[in-house]
Amino acid sequence: MYSMNIVVEAILNGMLTGSVYALIALGLTLVYGVLHIINFSHGAMLAAAMFAVLTLNQAFGLDPYLQIPILTPLLFVAGYAIQRFIIGPGSHGKDENILMITLGIAIVIENVLLAIFRSDIRSISTDYSFNVFELGPFIFSQARVFGLAGSVVTAVLLWFFLARSDTGKAIRAVSKEKLGASLVGINVKHVYAVTFGIGFACLAISACLLLPTFYVNPSIGGAFVLVAFTVVVLGGMGSIVGAMVGGVIIGVVESLSGLFLGESLGQIGIFLTFIIVLLVRPTGLFGAKA
């Protein structure tokens, strides 16, 4: 039986990890909330962003956190362009076409990464990768504390953007009523592309926060996006607050499962949670009924 200090420390460290899961899920839930489709390229683009962080670090010695203002606008532009010039025209207004196109994009990205970087596992070593903060009897990884801070700041900024800016109001209008938004002069295609861009920008920030403590290979995005799907379902499809709360809950569940069942079985708790939520509350904690 573990002491209470160990259990509490596992919970707190799970919250730190869960905050980054929440940030990954933010882009996924935002795209669903506006376009009402699942973006299957989300995980592959996260892997591409992580390799971009790795490459800039190895080529120029740039710290992952200092890459945030560089990669965030770049991935926003990439997301905007992919939706506006590939997904939008290729879907012909059909949701099933969007799903197939995003799946195809994911396959292309992953295979390009395999061709360039092979299947080797890579990581970044920074001065703070193994540093810790001590708070009484508890020990926390500095990099994961920075990840929590970055995730919270990003979520707050995104909330203010959606709540206060004209573009944010247009995004919320399109998510509620696409036809009505177009009738009052909102460019729906532009809003769709901006939403995709924001989703990919969140992945850029996630990649920069992840690399000091996580490894990367071309298929790493699949593991993270499975957790992100669980976060989105738990929090409620389309809910930003739900994504943040769901991410923290899933991080804690994974940490406690790893503590009591063993590290290799840590994700069992995540998928049990996923099944229970689907059975008990299909709309999630903050999701609205259809």
TrEMBL record:
Transmembrane intervals: 20-38, 43-60, 66-86, 98-118, 138-162, 191-214, 220-253, 260-280
Pfam family, one: BPD_transp_2
Lineage: Bacteria, Pseudomonadati, Pseudomonadota, Betaproteobacteria, Burkholderiales
Cellular component annotations (GO), alphabetically ordered: plasma membrane
The species this protein was found in: Parapusillimonas granuli
Membrane topology note: Multi-pass membrane protein
PANTHER family assigned: AMINO ACID ABC TRANSPORTER PERMEASE PROTEIN, BRANCHED-CHAIN AMINO ACID TRANSPORT SYSTEM PERMEASE PROTEIN LIVH
CDD domains: TM_PBP1_LivH_like
Coiled coil: none
Molecular function (Gene Ontology), one example: transmembrane transporter activity
Family in the record: Belongs to the binding-protein-dependent transport system permease family. LivHM subfamily.
Subcellular location: Cell membrane
Record's protein name: Branched-chain amino acid ABC transporter permease
Main localisation: membrane
Any one of the GO BP annotations: amino acid transport
Keywords: Amino-acid transport, Cell membrane, Membrane, Transmembrane, Transmembrane helix, Transport
